[in-house]
Fold this sequence. Notes:
Layout: H1 7-26, H2 28-56, E1 61-71, E2 74-82, H3 84-108, H4 114-136, H5 140-158, H6 165-196, H7 201-210, H8 212-233, H9 242-245, H10 251-260, H11 263-272, H12 274-277, H13 281-302, H14 308-328, H15 332-359, H16 377-391, H17 397-411, H18 415-440, H19 448-452, H20 459-474, H21 490-495, H22 516-543, H23 547-555, H24 557-564, H25 569-616, H26 623-643
Antiparallel strand pairs: 1-2
Amino acid sequence: xxxxxxxxxxxxxxxxxxxxxxxxxxxxxxxxxxxxxxxxxxxxxxxxxxxxxxxxxxxxxxxxxxxxxxxxxxxxxxxxxxxxxxxxxxxxxxxxxxxxxxxxxxxxxxxxxxxxxxxxxxxxxxxxxxxxxxxxxxxxxxxxxxxxxxxxxxxxxxxxxxxxxxxxxxxxxxxxxxxxxxxxxxxxxxxxxxxxxxxxxxxxxxxxxxxxxxxxxxxxxxxxxxxxxxxxxxxxxxxxxxxxxxxxxxxxxxxxxxxxxxxxxxxxxxxxxxxxxxxxxxxxxxxxxxxxxxxxxxxxxxxxxxxxxxxxxxxxxxxxxxxxxxxxxxxxxxxxxxxxxxxxxxxxxxxxxxxxxxxxxxxxxxxxxxxxxxxxxxxxxxxxxxxxxxxxxxxxxxxxxxxxxxxxxxxxxxxxxxxxxxxxxxxxxxxxxxxxxxxxxxxxxxxxxxxxxxxxxxxxxxxxxxxxxxxxxxxxxxxxxxxxxxxxxxxxxxxxxxxxxxxxxxxxxxxxxxxxxxxxxxxxxxxxxxxxxxxxxxxxxxxxxxxxxxxxxxxxxxxxxxxxxxxxxxxxxxxxxxxxxxxxxxxxxxxxxxxxxxxxxxxxxxxxxxxxxxxxxxxxxxxxxxxxxxxxxxxxxxxxxxxx
Length: 644
């Protein structure tokens, strides 16, 4: 029996409703069963549909659920699409999402109230429903529903601890910044409809591929607008500022946002629209440059962060830059492959950081950690595997996906962007092993009271870490480079139908062949750079307790302060946007609203009141006065008549 596609997102939606409506009444046991169980069943349902699909290598399957919007010749259905790209996304969104939900049972069980526990899992399930709707949608409109849904859920979960001002502000910040990107995405949808007369994926992309000369001239602006939406969701410069502050939510939320949902939506959308972007080389160039700038910019900031989750947050921003760099040079498969491997090791890293924070009673500052490796053996080993994968050390997953991106950039003949990507790889290895050294090596630098209570996390938390570490180790073998054989890259072969052939002179990405010898050299160079960053961090922080870094910071105090303060981008935005708009809002309130509008209305009311007060003297309620007034009126009329 074939599982209908709509069941996959419907199960998390059912879990959301159960937790929201019955969770407080029935307690944490019911919430755990409903919240985690619904995602587990959704994962089984998805994989029961995906396994035969992976085996058969089928084409696009569209399941129309119901008509939705009809206006003249325009119509939109509630319909879901299963093709290689959506299948890849659903495969890890469901599975990684399930592991994060399972981890949450141990992490959140000490939440003080049943209501808070139920609210947490309700939001998490709604997040999964929104993301699955986004990746399975068969048209731009339904995708936009999921797109806005993940934006809403990020606001709710980042601000989960709403009684804390910082968390509430972080949630608002994420919501506002994403609205900027979403406005661009919405305009891009209008542009797609104006060009193609439809918003159905199959129709839009097939028409673009069949008649590229007709549609190419209008696609640059459309693709830039769509990419603006991706910049907001996937935290690209200059719309990256919300993601580091998203750490205000519970750590499993960070793992879900950074690994399985939301931030990958932008890369998915650009890859989904590859037929449009390939006809807009100027837009692709912007994607590549923004991706490269974001990759190195966020990596530099991560060097000076001391909050363990902030380091991982800027790492995510940097790796997302890598993904867009790949898409911008036409290496869409490499970008999506990195999305897949990144989901494994970044989820493991965030959940591992959560285990550390859990063991230290909420401590997140790495300067008050250290010496945790023997006390948290499972967390340390899984964290180390994921770190090696992120650093690009072979044969772990991140090595193969990052090498595919660098090879794609090299093949596109973008030497500056290649140098940026290579240097960023070295920075990544450095700041990640700085994190590992400060957290797990040396002596414990926290208080004796905290150190006495350090303990390994429960099984519900360590089991997901072990599974994710295993996937971080072996996941890269799905996309081996061509030097291992033409059929070695299974991801590329599987995703090939998503990239239709498009022939339009002047719109191809200029590429030059990468021979096996060159590819081996590129792999060797990337490993060398990563190993150099790793060894330098180990020498500075594990062997010499950070003293070289302290001396370097003391030699360049202003530069170090600038990097530690994230280049003061938030302060710049405060000066350029927040304060001017706050001033404008006060002017509109105090002057326009209070003085002009309210003043005009109050003046009118005063005049009416004044006239009423004057006329009130005529209404005495005394019949004799009314008779006298009546008589005087008659006399006046007689005089007028006689005078005429």
